[in-house]
Write a structure and sequence with these properties.
Layout: H1 2-12, H2 14-33, H3 47-51, H4 57-65, H5 69-72, H6 81-96, H7 98-104, H8 108-136, H9 153-180, H10 185-196, H11 198-211, H12 216-239, E1 241-254, E2 258-271, H13 278-294, H14 300-310, H15 315-336, H16 339-348, E3 351-352, H17 360-395, H18 399-402, H19 407-431
Antiparallel strand pairs: 1-2, 1-3
Helix pairs in contact: 2-9, 2-10, 6-7, 6-8, 7-8, 8-9, 9-10, 10-19, 11-12, 12-19, 13-14, 13-15, 15-17, 16-17
Length: 447
Amino acid sequence: MKFIDTLKNVWKIEELRNRILLTLGMLLVYRFGAQVVLPGIDADMLAQFAGKFNAGGIGGLLNAFTGGAFANASVFALGIMPYISASIVVQLMQIAVPYLQKLQKEGESGRKKINQITRWLTIGICLVQAPSYLAGLPAMGVPAEAFVMGQSFMFYFSSVIILVTGTIFAMWLGEKITDKGIGNGISILIMVGIIARLPQSFAQEFVSRVMESNGGLIMILIELVIWFVIILLSIMLVMAVRKIPVQYARRTASGGYEKNIFGARQFIPLKLNASGVMPIIFAQAIMFVPSAVASLSESDFAQGIQATFSDIFGFWYNLVFAVLIIIFTYFYTAITVPTNKMADDLKRSGGFIPGIKPGSQTAEYLDRIMSQITLPGSIFLALIAIFPAFVVKLMGIQQGWALFYGGTSLLIMVGVAIDTMQQVNSYLLNRHYDGLMKSGKNRKAVA
């Protein structure tokens, strides 16, 4: 009943209701575009090609992030990933490029310029990825008869323009959801693409277990229990923080009159996983490189490397993958958590950590704490990332269904769901003081 009352309160707030409806409408447009096949390709002949990506592997991983658009050769085949890649590149460049550092300090105007640079870089990445995708379709199994107009220059030219436009349109949808809807638009688009593959993957696992007498319903029940446990552990990883107590010797608060507060205590929340899913994305991008480079050679050694790094459920692939995730977790945390700036801001506001001198000693203390909590956080993140390989090898789960047992897919779904729920809760708490409680009266929503 409390959940139903909360849904009623959500619907009563006009602004929140409009944002949710706008978000759902944008997502509907995105999912519709994922089914529109590129002009010049026979959609009926893509059925067998699309079926190859439901069994896992690198192709299945790419297809999962685009919600099936990659295998459908649709106008959204590149998905939103070029924009993600451009954002990562620009974020890393802000460390070394003085011009971007200057823009970062200019506030809102600087942020707009950085966003514009990211958009242009997205177009540049699309112009490289689109021809590569089209040229790789025959190698991935699309028959020559599927190309109705042949693989002529006009086909490539028009398809590249459509693919680039599709990515830019998806980027626009994501930005509109962020500005006018609810949640982070880009992340929601990725999450919806991932969730779109979940029913089909679960149906294949159900058929394998029940219809083919490979464990029966009891195995399905065990798999669901393990899946929910992994989701709970992922939520703990995303939400876990280490609270650093902060003491303020003297603060002034105004509430109709002024008073001095001596000994006011607050906390600095340091997240166990401050880098989010970025280490997995970085590591995943690097794991594609050995296979791509090895494919250029026909030697036995190169073919062995390609086979090893093409099996995303293999031992050596996951061992290297886990090590890279731990390394990138430290790297990205060092970039995104400026302990020196935190110590300076704390000193300027008159706060200090009990037993630690303000200034450089505070920065060193925060850096040491971050290093200590990052180690278990990175190991936990790596274990969740490679857990699909464990369920495939130990339980015989279908590879397509196993992708939802960890990795980027699960962490993105958990992170986006938590972020969206927090935004909805903030509206409820601002407009209804009993929004998440059973008793009390609703305040009239502010227009």
